[in-house]
């Protein structure tokens, strides 16, 4: 079984568009939307939700007003100013450290599991999809990403799939590390801009540190051919394998409106390029990690 994570370094590069098309081109796959802060793979992958589960990450204090003597100890001790007069808990400010419960002289505060969001098991034409929705201003996105990857491996065992495709989060933070650690390879989707180049370099440092082979494709490369060439040079210097590039194509927007992967509703230049990129991904894994048998 192989696991490929698609990263971007920044939002808006077309990572999810590429992931959805990869899912349509592959067979025997399980899909994971690891961008739990702003999940959108399901929007262009027709699906049916089969299971819904709460996600608990960390703890929150619960104040027993009847037992509270209003001594103010919890307010004084909280360095995050998460407990206000009343006393009342400011859920957004709370870090769940438990200091208030530890120092409450009356034992009026207890720590209880914090529900941070919801995760789902869905079915699609392109295989099972494991995805999630983190609550507003909630944390522990890295923990939730790890949970989704574990659930995806269970789906592999159930369906005899040989591939996990992970639509990763943007950036290089905790959720990206959780989505990348231990996978077989990374595909970085970037764009021909200064920020695209900068964030590509940061992702390259991360994948090098994690010892994960990295590949690169430049989306909308023809918007700035000179910058695209510069990105190819930097990718080569960083040891990242260039898969080919994707041109600007109005069919991408049209596919989003239809809520379908690009390659299923277009034979235009972008769809053709993505098919070529996917073939290069398969070839790369065949060379680096052994045969990856799947239909194209």
From TrEMBL:
Query: CobQ/CobB/MinD/ParA nucleotide binding domain: from which residue to which, for each copy?
Result: 4-261
Q: What SUPFAM superfamilies does the entry give?
A: 4Fe-4S ferredoxins, P-loop containing nucleoside triphosphate hydrolases
Enumerate the UniProt keywords alphabetically. Iron, Iron-sulfur, Metal-binding
Domain of life, source organism = Bacteria
Write down the CDD domains for this protein, in alphabetical order: SIMIBI_bact_arch
Q: Which residue ranges does the record assign to the 4Fe-4S ferredoxin-type domain?
A: 93-110
Any one GO molecular-function label of the UniProt entry:
metal ion binding
**InterPro entries attached here?**
4Fe4S_Fe-S-bd, 4Fe4S_Fe_S_CS, CobQ/CobB/MinD/ParA_Nub-bd_dom, P-loop_NTPase
Report what the protein is called: MinD superfamily P-loop ATPase, contains an inserted ferredoxin domain
Q: Which organism is it from?
A: Desulfoluna spongiiphila
């Amino acid at each position: 079984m192989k696991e490929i994570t698609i990263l971007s370094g920044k939002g808006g590069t077309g990572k999810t568009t590429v992931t959805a098309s990869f899912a349509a081109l592959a067979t025997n796959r399980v899909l994971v939307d690891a961008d739990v802060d702003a999940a959108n793979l399901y929007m262009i992958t027709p699906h049916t939700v089969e299971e819904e589960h709460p996600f608990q990450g960390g703890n929150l204090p619960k104040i027993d007003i009847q037992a509270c003597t209003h001594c103010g100890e919890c307010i004084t001790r909280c360095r995050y100013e998460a407990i206000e007069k009343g006393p009342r808990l400011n859920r957004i400010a709370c870090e769940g450290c438990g200091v208030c419960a530890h120092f409450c002289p009356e034992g009026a505060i207890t720590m209880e599991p914090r529900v941070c969001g919801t995760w789902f098991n869905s079915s699609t034409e392109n295989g099972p999809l494991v995805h999630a929705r983190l609550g507003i201003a909630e944390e522990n996105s890295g923990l939730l990403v790890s949970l989704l990857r574990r659930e995806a491996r269970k789906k592999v065992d159930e369906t005899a799939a040989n591939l996990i495709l992970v639509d990763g989060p943007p950036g290089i933070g905790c959720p990206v590390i959780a989505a990348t650690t231990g996978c077989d390879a990374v595909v970085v989707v970037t764009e021909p801009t200064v920020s695209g180049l900068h964030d590509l370099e940061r992702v390259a440092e991360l994948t090098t540190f994690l010892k994960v082979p990295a590949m690169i494709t430049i989306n909308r490369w023809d918007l700035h051919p000179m910058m695209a060439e510069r990105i190819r040079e930097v990718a080569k210097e960083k040891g990242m394998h260039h898969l080919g590039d994707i041109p600007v194509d109005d069919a991408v927007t049209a596919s989003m409106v239809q809520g379908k992967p690009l390659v299923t509703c277009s034979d235009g230049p972008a769809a053709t390029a993505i098919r070529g990129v996917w073939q290069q991904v398969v070839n790369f894994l065949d060379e680096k990690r052994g045969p990856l048998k799947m239909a194209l």
